[in-house]
Amino acid sequence: MKQADFEVIIIGGSYSGLSAAMSLGRSLRNVLIIDNGEPCNQQTPHSHNFLTQDGSTPKDIYIKAKEQLQKYDTIQFLNDLAITGKRLGDLFEITTKNGKKISCQKLIFATGIKDLLPAIDGLAECWGISVIHCPYCHGYEFKNAKTAMITNGERAMHLTSLIKNLTDQLTILTNGPSDFNKDQLKKLKRNNISVIENKIEKVEHQNGYVENVYFGTHEPIAFQAIYAAVPFVQHTDILQSLGCQITEQGYISIDSFQRTTVNGVFACGDNSSPMRSVANAVAAGSLTGAMVNKELADASFL
Ligand SMILES: Cc1cc2nc3c(=O)[nH]c(=O)nc-3n(C[C@H](O)[C@H](O)[C@H](O)COP(=O)(O)OP(=O)(O)OC[C@H]3O[C@@H](n4cnc5c(N)ncnc54)[C@H](O)[C@@H]3O)c2cc1C
């Protein structure tokens, strides 16, 4: 039978992947991290709400983590894109864009998610700067600011309850017909939150900082921040080709030990959790590393 090239391959080498690698590398597991260097937060100037690193740049957190991992000769790095994956008996084989074929006993997906930003002129340039995905990460920096939320329906009600604590100048932009029922509309009115259904044409900004939102022939409105609840997809279809189940919300289905529905395959970070933060990604990665190590340890302790 073919020997695996590595005990563990981790696809995705950002916060969750590096964290999983740390637990594994320190357990003397022979680990390869394949990463193509496209973390979701790369445009944000400062990352917040992660102890000891509050306000650091995403890159500085990454560089420090990678430097610490490079001390472990058990961990190797490959700058490449994993494009296919298949089972080879008890092993998994991953192929990469640059033509490498590498096998492992256990596979971890730490691949993050791909945000699908609405096609609104100027929005992408502001993403992570003044267009915000999460109040815990950037809400404090925009407290009391004149704020819009591009969202609708039930999701908007959830977000509004969190954001209204940070500012009382809040407007919902549904960017088309609103999905609110009568009770929700009454609640929004009671809380002084207006709803604008006009189609958004563009976001005017200075270096990513929102200034005005334009709605075709209607008057533009000045805002300082916009929360955007955007849809997402998984980064890789290797998941599906291996048979990993995806939840209705689009996350990789995992149990409380970070195991996917396929034996030997694990997932951690944004790809399998709606609690989207560096702290949660690091925590999930650390747990994943420990769980993978335990499976390997149990299998060799006969
Ligand atoms: C704009 C923005 C700002 C944010 N700001 C904050 C903040 O201030 N504070 C905070 O705590 N959180 C913040 N977050 C959330 C935080 O960035 C994420 O929760 C965290 O990055 C998730 O880590 P991850 O490792 O799961 O995924 P990611 O960091 O997204 O990394 C996934 C990695 O996998 C790689 N990858 C994917 N597919 C493949 C493949 N097939 N082959 C090889 N490599 C692959 C990618 O290139 C990437 O390097 C922000 C998110 C966004 C979008």
Automatic annotation (TrEMBL):
Signal sequence, renumbered to the chain: none
Residue ranges the record marks as coiled coil: none
Domain FAD/NAD(P)-binding residue range list: 7-285
Keywords from the named record: Flavoprotein, Oxidoreductase
Entry-linked Pfam families: Pyr_redox_2
InterPro entries, per database record: FAD/NAD-bd_sf, FAD/NAD-binding_dom, Ferredoxin-NADP_redctase_2
PANTHER family hit by this protein: THIOREDOXIN REDUCTASE 1-RELATED-RELATED
Protein name stated in the entry: NAD(P)/FAD-dependent oxidoreductase
